User: Fold this.
Amino acid sequence: MKVSLIAVGKVKAPFAEADAHYRKMLGRHQPVEVIEVRDELNVEGRIPERAHVVALDRGGRAMASRAWAAWLSERRIDARDVCFVIGGPRGLPAEVLDLASERVSLGPQTMVHQLARVVLLEQLYRAHKILAREPYHY
Assistant:
């Protein structure tokens, strides 16, 4: 299973350091390819074929950490590539949301898209640690 993350805009300080940190830690479990696009119009063409597309959207399903782990385990069983999509300041256009296999929310609060990227990477890392029964979560 290959995991990719399409993000509108480049990650900048103060989020760049945390982004690099979690991508490095995830690399031991499941590398995540990050594809940065200039704007929302460039997202659709970068989504891998046949991938399970997950749009980060405030109206999506919110999950606790153990639910993220269960979700990740299900994706492993599916053996399909997973592609997360994070929009920019205006979110994702309807055309991209319509391509999503599902929508996931990182919670009811509003956060800048660069922080959402870091939170997603951290939750993926935490889910891997839970599945591996390693002490990060416990």
